[in-house]
Every structure is written in C-alpha cells, then in structure tokens.
Amino acid sequence: MIDVTVIGFGSVGSALSLLLLNNKNNMRVNILEPDPNKEGAILDLSHGMSLYPGKELYVNDYDMFANADFIYFTAGTPNLHGGSRLSTAKQNIQLTKDLFDDQEFNKVPYIIVITNPVDIISYHVMKFSNLPYDHVVGIGTFLDSVRLSYYLSVLSDYKADEINAYVLGEHGDSQFAAYSMTKVQGSPITEFAFFSPERLEEAQTLTRNAAFQIRETQGGTLYGVSKCAETILNSLMSSEVSHYPLSILTNEHYNKMLKLDRSVYISVPIQISNKGIRIDNEVHLEGAELNLYQKSAKIISEVTLD
Questions:
Q1: Is 279 helix (H, G, I), strand (E, B) or coil?
Q2: Which of 103, 112, 81 shows the shortest CA–CA distance to 8?
Q3: Distance in angstroms (rounded) separating the CA atoms of residues 93 and 202
Q4: What CA–CA distance (Å, rounded) separates 112 from 231?
C-alpha cells in the first residue's frame, strides 16, 4: 500500500483526492483539513469508499502524515482573479513554515507542491522540511506545458498527445514557451512550416492567459493541475522514464546557464521514474529563449525570501 497525504481539501485537494481514489495503485489516502466547513465534503467523498477497491481513506491522521510516501501540498491563500501568483507569497510561506518546520518524517517522502506561488513555496517546503531537494518538487510549468500542447493542437490538425511542448521558467507571468525543445510526432516543431511564428505566438498567448480565462467562470484551476499531480506519482512508481518540466532546485549547470549566484526553485526539464527525479543537464538554450529564461530566474531569485 502507498501512503499518501493530501494537505488541503479545497477545490484542488478534493479533485486530486478523487483521482487518487481512482488510481491504479493500492493506497491509503489521508486528508489533512482542519476547517470544519469541509467536513460535509469529506463525508460526501467517504460515502463512496466501498466502490474504490484497494483504497482506504483517513482524515487528519498526523501519524500517517509522518509516515507518508507522498505528500501533496494544496492548501493556501489563492491569488485573486487578475493578480500575480506572487501576490500571496508571504501568507503561504507562513503556512508552509507552520506545517513543515520541525516536522519529523519517518520516511523520506516525495512532496509535490501545488500551492502558489509554486516556485517560492517549493523552495520553502524544502527549507523547512530539511528533505533532499530531489524529494521536493513543484508542479511548476508542467501544467503550462500541457496547456501549450492543447492549444497547439487546437490550432492544428495534430492531437494533443502527439505534441510534446515545453514551457520553462516561473509558473507565472515570466514563463516562456521553449519551442526549441517542443516536438510534434517526435520531430522538432520548428521543422513544420504550418507552425508559423504567428501561430506559435498565438498558442503561447492562449497558454499564458489560460488561468485568467478559467477564473472568469470558475474559482481557479483544478482538473488540469490535479491530473498533472497524479501523473507525477504514477511516474515515480513506473520503471519507464518520463520527461516533464518541474520546479526543482537548480544545480550548477542551471545556475551557470541562468546566471544565478545561488540556487532557486524554477521549472527545468527533469527525468522521472521509480529510480527518482533527475535534472536533465543536456539542455542548452540560446538566443531569445535563453534571455527569457534568465529574466524569469532573476524574478524568482529576487522574490525568494530566506
């Protein structure tokens, strides 16, 4: 049995919990949510447990938290519609400190951070938890990359799963589409005449504005990000190596590329499997993409608070 703790049962936490109960792996799911106003929603989820074979559901079990294999951090103050994801940094850093400072773990769990600003919060989860950097990752631009694949598909005759798009940098205003790394049916997208600079720019704009569009009629993103979060768990349970951009602590290779004088959490290409998470050091960007990457890293570096 896999032991998973989900911190927070808001819109993302509830959607993610449902996905985990439908996951192919046997697991115990523990929801940490002290808000009494969520009791009805958790009870509603509990009523279906007989229909989830191989699953067990627990609520506010702190022993399970200390013994978790995977921890999802979804709690926090959401940013307001139209506001920057960086606007809630201080409140959510304090929440991170309250949860992880001096917390003792009996295992070395993987912590997957969804709470925004995800790059900043991931850094502080690692700092307060004292866990290895490769066991604390943020969703980062994984969702943005999936969105870019979707919009490139919408603008063309290719299916979304035939497009492997990359968005790098901050999960926020300074993110950028790394089209030099993006492939369609296994070939570089730059080799397809159909994907003109105008179409590529349109897809990137749609991707950048996606969260704002969602919040026009919904409180925030929940389904896409929850699926990305579940996919990371599946990848860490698989012998097959998968490739995603996740927010992780930069190493010497990326510090040099991004002209950083200290390591920060920012989305970089990673390789992930049941052997763990490894940063891909074979990535070498040039020109405008490199400049955008460096600009994004500078913003993250200046906002990351020690």
A1: strand
A2: 112
A3: 34
A4: 11
